[in-house]
Fold:
Amino acid sequence: MSRRKSEKPFGSQINAPWADESPSDTKAAATLVLIKEIHLPPQQPRRYFDPDALKELVNSIKEHGILQPLLVRPMTSGGYELVAGERRYRAASESGLAEVPAVIRELSNSDALSLALIENLQREDLNPVEETEGILQLLSLHLETTVEKVISLLYRLNNESKGKVTRNVTGNETVEQVEKLFNSIGTMSWSSFVRNRLPLLKLPQEIREALQEGKIAYTKASVIARIKDSKVRSSLLLETIKNHLSLSQIKERSEELQPNSDKPSDPLSLRLKTAYKQINKSKVWSNPKKRQKLEKLLSQLEALTSAE
Structure:
């Protein structure tokens, strides 16, 4: 998924610790660190790694080495904690490297997490679920509150903008912080985030996983998620992934699969309705032979419905 980039580096816009460093400064500051001395932090923004993409990176590292250094910070217990570059770290480990180039920085817990979130949000292959969770974590960090309260705040801001609740309940300073962060991200406004991304958090687990793995677009996921029957929903999800159904095909299949008061619940009635759709779609009456058969069948149906 391609992402719209802001004019300035994302990190520099939110006062990241490396904001005043150019790429050449970063390379000059890199040093070789033993992989066994690098440890993953307890809280990592990224949870899914595409196995095929990781394999490609492993092959690239074997041939060219690591072109961009990792970012680590010293641990009081010894060794280093990984701040940014987990995908490179994993690929380097699988490649059998004993040491990797890394930039060592003294960072606080909040600065380290902020940088990890920023790097994650800059990825070209970032899926909507990961992006949503990353932005919420970043807001939580900067507003010094929980993710749950951030979600509540965003919904409240949205209601204020629509006049559903009294304006300025949240305070101008908080609103400015939220707007500043979304402006620095540069991919969407906070109102668009509330409208299009927060609903993703309520998606059924199997649909969220398909989104995270890049198997389905979130516009398609939203349609499938409306199906209340879990078995029917899972079946349509698998069909969509297997047959690469378009959004219009998913909507059509969703209507066929979901029984409601406006649709026939009897299997025979459903077959008649489906047959009618197929006849209209294929326009069999344009074929003289098929038209003759169709007229005969219609006559039989008319006779059947008129019979006492």
Observations:
- The beta strands are 30-34, 38-39, 70-74, 80-84, 99-104.
